[in-house]
Amino acid sequence: MFTTQPRALVTAILSRVAPDVLYAMFTVFVLTYATEQLGLPRGQALAAVLIGSALQIVLIPLAGALSDRWNRRRMYLGGAVAASAWPFVFFPMAEAGSWGLLVLGVVVALAIHSLLYGPQAAFVAEQFTPRLRYTGSSLAYTLAGVIGGAVAPLLFTALLGSFGSWLPLALYLAGTAVVTLVGVLLGRDPAHDEDEEYTRLAKDAGRSPGRMVREAPGR
Description:
It is a single chain. It is elongated, with a radius of gyration of 20 Å. It is an all-alpha fold. Mean pLDDT is 89; it is low at 212-219. Helix content is 81%, strand content 0%. Helix 4 (87-94) runs antiparallel to helix 5 (99-126). The chain contains ten helices and no strands.
């Protein structure tokens, strides 16, 4: 993996950073921000997150289905661009202290997250050749989780505590979106010929593609 497909691995890792950080902000840290910075009751903040999350039950599979019909990379790029811009809209809007505006902000943010998360599994898997797809996807998910969502709540807390302003939070979110944009631009579209050739070789060998992966040299 590290010697033959480093670009695919970097692409897969970077593509996951923004969705993880965006989700950490708008399902976890937004509760702290709404109650401590905006002075809203915790129940109202939690209700905003629940409404946005409920809509994702529909939006995530819808985004995945649309990405099967449209160009997946372009859709992912669109989601990353929206993720970079929305924090600069959300925080000034939320500063008004209105629960309705908070709900709107969280709903839009989680809709943008759905545009990224819905196609994510397919996009990550498509970056690797069939023989290394399992290993590459596993590494990408694990490493991206460490540098993305795992540290995001800690960084949000540190930034807000140090600066007392929403601007560093928005810049951090935008920065992670740019990281994901770079990853997606480095990526590739689905290589259907490659998959079909691998399936043909598996049939010629009298084995399933999954068994070929398990028996491939170096695994």
